[in-house]
Structure formats: structure tokens, C-alpha cells
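Researcher: Structure prediction, please.
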Amino acid sequence: MDFRDELPVDHRLARVYRIGAGLCGVVLLVFGCLGLTDGLAFFSTTGERVAGLSSNGLLSLISIVTAVVLIAGAVVGGNTASTINIVVGTLFVLSGFVNLALLDSGANVLAFRIPNVIFSFVMGFVIATFGMYGRVSGNLPRDNPYWRHRHPETAQRLPAGEVHGPAPRPGIAGPAR
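Model: Predicted structure follows.
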């Protein structure tokens, strides 16, 4: 079974995924370009301040590559953008934890400082939230394409006027008729 086959393809949530990937990609692209134009040392563990964060050439390059991936996801759109947002957001959060452990050590090859760690956590959660929006929840509305795809029999039986309410929770009876 292919994961892509399990997801609805054409839905209005694709705009949210595209906007999120595009905006976060542009922010990272600007940060990376500012770092590279400053001529930062590539593997400096102390780093230089760029846009309020510590950076070196390697972090600038990684930021640009990540930005290109996010912007490509925004161009492709749909479930691809959502999946890219979730993966990149998760990697940002993991990077925050790893680099938090490496602060003030010789292994801090990305020249992270506490503001970088906080930025990594915040940006990771923002990117992942854009990717998960309307896709991951225990109480998706019945007109949500992901809910409809996961419950095709129930979705087909719903009267036309009842598609906008929240999905019934398993084991909880609906309103009496």
C-alpha cells in the first residue's frame, strides 16, 4: 500500500499547506542568503550574528537547502506540501534538541546558541502545524477530505445537510431522532 494512495488529492486545505511551506521557506532563504553574503567561516563553532541568530557558512547553506525543499513543496502543493511540512517541522524540532545538547562543545558545528535552539523549536512547530492543519485530529469535521477518505461508507450515507457537523466519536451515541 502506498501512503499517497490513502490521502485525498484535491482539497481546499492544499492552500494552507502551500502558504505555510512558502512563507517558512522564504524566511529560511533570507536567513541563509544573509549568512552567505556576510562571508561567514564555514565550520566556525562560535558563529557570527545574522538576523539575531548565530550562524556560520554551514548553517547558512543548510538553511538555503531547507528553504528550497519547502518552496518546492509549496510549488507542488497538496499532500506533498503537507508531508514535506510535517517532515521538515519534525526535523527542526529534533535539531533543536540535538543542538541544545551540543551547546558550548566542540561538536557544535552549526554554531548554535540558545536563540537558535528556540528558533528551531518555534519554526519546527510552525512548519509542522501548517502540514498537519486539517489533516491530523481526533475530531475532524465530516466534510474534511481526510475524514471522508478514512470513512467512505459513512460519508456516502450522510444526508446532504449533515456533512458540516463534527464527526461522531467512536462509542458515543449521536443525537436521538
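Model: The first helix runs from residue 14 to 37.
Researcher: Thanks, that helps.
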